DNA sequence: CCGCAAAGGTCCGTCCCGGGGCCATTGGTT
DNA sequence: AACCAATGGCCCCGGGACGGACCTTTGCGG
């Protein structure tokens, strides 16, 4: 509801600008110049909603105090409050006043349609792009994590994240736990830029996976791969960690490619 | 073990927030919540300056008309004009009025100190991060490019980019041509998100490489690797393309790691 | 020679957002 | 019971970004 909506009604997706309409030729300026995402308010809503949906904040958990969260997001408290209000109206969080109060997550992880209004509808090209991107960064993150000498609590965190995935009671919980595991692996890579990349890939992936039915068989296969990945990371075997993660991404990719344009 | 720890006045850098000061423990909210870069004007200046320094716009070449460029960057023409004015005062571009006029690049690629004022001073941690990130995304991009069935003009573009690197007369020209080659490879991956990632990695890399003396021997070794990479991509050998690119990144990384914190 | 078109140059009104101060509510502590 | 601290709720101001409209310069073509 911001700009866009120029006079040509052709609804150009963000991605179409990467290719010259006339020739199929791509040139560097077309590809490199990326729009600096507009609207701070919407971006904040989107980021918080994504964080919640990805399980960065688990159910019932409290968000940091507004003043702190605002500073961390480099956003004024006003804007942050507006964003939180939007989330509240979407039923993702509830807020309580007073000491010990705050905003806490109430995420049922159901109703795949009731997501926050701005949940981005991605074009087919964007989805394929996200899958491709993920296929690059997630194996890279796994490889890096396996090269690190992990501390005891880090190893425990990884093991615990894996376990949470395996004992997830239903598909929705499994989805959240899966995101958390992948983000944990990315975090153990030690590289903030890698974490950022994986976060974006997971965010895009999440929207897609929420839209399809999940087969029990797929989950079992996926969990077996998770186990191998964690094993390889803990065992310090980067190449194996990467190889299995590649298989893992390819499996998801194959599953999703059939369902999009 | 949530956050808290609000009131320490210790001038925390952007990256430090990824780790808890007290325990070395990292938690997802700390890692995932990323600030949404402020100041649109500065971001625009930085992006254009980077594009020029990376050779996205070659010397003498004209930038797109203001109205078009503004729309592509999702920035108002006012802001874009301010940014261009800043570049003009830094001597990176010149502007001419009237039909056939416009803003064109005048980039000598010398005076490593005269860079635009905002050229980001990255902390040691951020540099290591960038090197790590690059080590993940560039091999991934090369792998992807090698899996694509490239059209004739794409193959020609790649070959030409390689040649430009090899015939570069001096270190500065070599730097620009090198960036262009890497961005070309990323573009041929076909994934905008990958291009974006490589662009960010190259931007960070550029600032580092401009600060160190370059040895003839290093350039020769680098060019040999470039040749192998392009060969592997054109020959449709993804694994080899990735392997050589990894060596290539490792070489640069080793070169730079000695010179930073 | 004249007019048109394609650029940059300028200005203005509107609104979003950041910064900061202050109030209201609530629960713990003395 | 009284106080205090932590937290959300509210408001106002100022600057910056946006989006238009309009002017100026310049080259090309009829």
UniProtKB/TrEMBL annotation, chains A, B:
The keyword Hydrolase does not apply. Pfam families: FCD, GntR. InterPro entries: GntR_C, TF_FadR/GntR_C, Tscrpt_reg_HTH_GntR, WH-like_DNA-bd_sf, WH_DNA-bd_sf. GO terms for molecular function: DNA binding; DNA-binding transcription factor activity. SMART domains: FCD, HTH_GNTR. Residues 38-108 form the HTH gntR-type domain. PROSITE patterns: HTH_GNTR. The keyword Transcription regulation applies. Gene3D superfamilies: GntR ligand-binding domain-like, Winged helix-like DNA-binding domain superfamily/Winged helix DNA-binding domain. Keywords: DNA-binding, Transcription, Transcription regulation. This is GntR family transcriptional regulator. It comes from Humibacillus xanthopallidus.
């Amino acid at each position: 509801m911001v700009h866009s909506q120029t006079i040509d009604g052709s609804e150009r997706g963000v991605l179409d600008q990467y290719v010259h309409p006339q020739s199929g030729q791509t040139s560097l300026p077309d590809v490199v110049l990326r729009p600096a995402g507009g609207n701070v308010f919407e971006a904040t809503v989107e980021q918080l909603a994504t964080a919640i949906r990805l399980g960065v904040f688990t159910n019932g958990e409290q968000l940091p105090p507004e003043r702190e969260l605002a500073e961390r997001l480099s956003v004024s408290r006003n804007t942050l409050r507006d964003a939180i209000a939007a989330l509240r109206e979407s039923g993702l969080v509830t807020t309580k006043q007073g000491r010990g109060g705050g905003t806490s997550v109430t995420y049922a992880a159901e109703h795949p349609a009731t997501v926050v209004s701005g949940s981005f509808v991605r074009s087919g090209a964007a989805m394929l792009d996200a899958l491709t991107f993920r296929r690059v960064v997630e194996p890279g993150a796994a490889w890096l994590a396996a090269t690190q000498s992990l501390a005891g609590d880090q190893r425990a965190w990884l093991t615990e994240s894996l376990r949470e995935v395996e004992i997830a009671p239903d598909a929705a919980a499994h989805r959240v736990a899966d995101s958390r595991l992948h983000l944990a692996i990315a975090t153990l890579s030690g590289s903030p830029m890698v974490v950022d990349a994986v976060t974006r890939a997971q965010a895009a992936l999440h929207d897609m996976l929420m839209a399809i039915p999940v087969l029990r068989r797929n989950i079992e296969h996926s969990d077996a791969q998770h186990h191998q990945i964690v094993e390889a990371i803990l065992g310090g075997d980067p190449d194996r960690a990467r190889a299995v993660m590649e298989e893992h991404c390819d499996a998801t990719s194959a599953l999703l490619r059939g369902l999009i344009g």
